[in-house]
Amino acid sequence: QVQLVESGGGLVQAGGSLRLSCVASGSTSSNYAMGWFRQAAGKEREFVATISRSGDGILYADFVKGRFTISRDNTKNTVYLQMNSLGPEDTAVYYCAAERIWYGTAVVVTSLEEYDYWGQGTQVTISS
Fold it and tell me: What is the model's pLDDT at position 99?
């Protein structure tokens, strides 16, 4: 079982940047595909980005439009989400998620329902 703790959220002006981090503990993070999701007030949680165990597989939601970059450092059991050109529409609680992958180091997971482990979330607020 893995525990996830997000950090790096905050309040920034439109056009600014933030870097979110997700530290995994309790298990070897390189055994897990990782994902970032977000949930705005009154809306359902939605997929943002995912990265495979090795980091070779990466997918983004269409709304990212080249603004976000997901990466991981398995030596630090940490996954990152670099977010640039932020707008008020990016305001949400951002969650890190992990899914154990038994076969294939390039497998990515985009479905919320497939993830078994979740962090508590970090608030991102973008002012206009």
Answer: 96
